[in-house]
Design brief:
- It is built from 15 helices and five strands.
- It is an alpha/beta fold.
- A five-stranded parallel sheet has the order 2-3-4-1-5, sandwiched between helices.
- α4 links the parallel β2 and β3.
- α1 runs parallel beside α2 and α13 runs antiparallel to α14.
- The longest helix has 22 residues.
- It is elongated, with a radius of gyration of 24 Å.
- The structure holds zinc ion (ZN).
- The site of zinc ion has 9 residues, from α3.
Length: 308
């Protein structure tokens, strides 16, 4: 793995590479942006480059001891912290910060990645703050967060901040084609991924299901109301994926709305789907919500179509 293989956020890539080449690595970074767009991959690659003992290239050498140990998950100068349960707790941080006092073993630096840093409790953040205020010269801490809102201002002010953008539709397509080795031609599927690599992986695993959904929505103007409502069975059989299915239906309707004469019918149907998504978030009345939604979208599209 090298930065070249990570898709998207090229400016950040260039910035991090030049930071290493020019020996401008600082003590603390905050990487933030939507979940699932590759922040952790960036941080891991950056850490590996910092620890590599051959810094003349734009990527880690993969030959030095530090690189070999990094690849096998045993680099003694690399630390990754993830939430335990829902949060990163003071005990996790306290033990970790103690290790910053010991000098690095293989490299000239020690790198600490704190993933989902916005889940740190306030105590945990204060625990880290002490290290950030007076870091050992060899310590580099990379905080990763989906938003900077939950991070203490006193921490943020000490970090170099890098904002990560969601991937563009083209970048998502590239990711699916190259990394997952699947050809996607379907704009609606790409849109469903919402610029997120993690979501793209989920979507690709559910391709068969989504294909069935697309088929029955595509036929909405050709099948009877009764047959359309029978499709509730498909949603019932895939309850755990219902939000993904509804999002997909919404997007299909959105793309079709641009090509049909009955635009208002499709726009109203989209509203109905959005209402169903909202309802499912707060109620367990699955069957009623889904049946009602199917009836309403069929009516919005077909009955208004007939009148128009
Ligand atoms: Zn190396």
């Amino acid at each position: 793995m090298s930065f070249n293989e990570i898709i998207g956020n090229n400016e950040n890539k260039q910035f991090l590479i030049s930071t290493i080449k020019n020996e401008k690595v600082v003590h603390s970074y905050l990487f933030f942006g939507t979940d699932g767009i590759g922040k952790k991959m960036f941080a891991t690659q950056f850490a590996k480059m910092i620890l590599c003992n051959d810094k003349l290239q734009e990527k880690p050498c993969n030959k030095c001891k530090a690189c070999m140990e990094f690849n096998s998950g045993n680099n003694p100068d690399f630390f990754l912290v993830e939430p335990e349960g829902n949060s990163i707790k003071i005990n996790q941080v306290r033990q970790l910060m103690k290790t910053t006092l010991e000098k690095p073993i293989e490299s000239s630096k020690k790198v600490y990645i704190i993933n989902n840093a916005d889940t740190m409790t306030k105590e945990a953040q204060n625990g880290i703050l002490k290290t950030l205020e007076e870091p050992q010269e060899y310590v580099v801490i990379i905080l990763i967060a989906s938003s900077e809102n939950n991070i203490l201002t006193t921490i943020k002010s000490r970090c170099t901040k890098l904002y990560f953008n969601n991937l563009s539709n083209d970048e998502i397509k590239q990711y699916i084609n190259k990394k997952l080795n699947i050809n996607v031609y379907d704009d609606e599927i790409v849109k469903l991924c919402n610029g997120s690599i993690a979501k793209a992986e989920e979507v690709m695993q559910k391709q068969d299901l989504l294909e069935k959904v697309k088929h029955f929505i595509a036929n909405i103007e050709k099948i009877s109301k009764l047959n359309f409502i029978r499709q509730s069975q498909l949603l019932n059989d895939n309850k755990e994926d219902v939000l993904l299915i509804l999002e997909y239906i919404y997007i299909i309707l959105f793309y079709r709305a641009k090509r049909v004469t009955n635009i208002n019918g499709y726009i109203n149907a989209m509203k109905v789907v959005q209402e169903a998504i909202n309802k499912l978030a707060i109620s367990n009345n699955f069957d009623m919500t889904i049946d009602y939604m199917l009836i309403k979208i069929w009516e919005e599209i077909n009955e208004k179509n007939n009148r128009g």
